[in-house]
């Protein structure tokens, strides 16, 4: 099997981008999102000046994000709320597939 090394490669996510994180319950999706947000300075370009986390079901990540100064919103955000975010922004829709 051939493996390619990614050293010296720019692997940052470039805003604007779309990403779907899918998987069964308890497989680490929320942990991945938390780590993405925590490391956004190193992982996303340009660095988001604002982050809006929108959720369908309250989870342990919500108060953690609030304490760190990230905006949270219950449900699908109205378009004007998204447009009010300081740009560049990262908008995360968590568990809102059926909303």
Automatic annotation (TrEMBL):
GO biological process: viral DNA genome packaging
A Pfam family per the record: Adeno_IVa2
Keywords for the protein's UniProt record, in alphabetical order: Host nucleus
Entry protein name: Uncharacterized protein
């Amino acid at each position: 099997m051939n493996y390619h090394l990614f050293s010296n490669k720019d692997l940052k996510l470039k805003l604007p981008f779309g990403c779907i994180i899918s998987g069964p319950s308890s497989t680490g999706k929320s942990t991945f999102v938390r780590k993405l947000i925590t490391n956004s300075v190193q992982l996303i370009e340009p660095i988001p000046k604002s982050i809006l986390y929108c959720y369908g079901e309250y989870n342990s990540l919500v108060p953690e994000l609030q304490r760190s100064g990230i905006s949270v919103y219950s449900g699908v955000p109205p378009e004007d709320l998204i447009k009010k975010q300081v740009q560049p922004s990262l908008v995360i829709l968590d568990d809102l597939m059926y909303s």
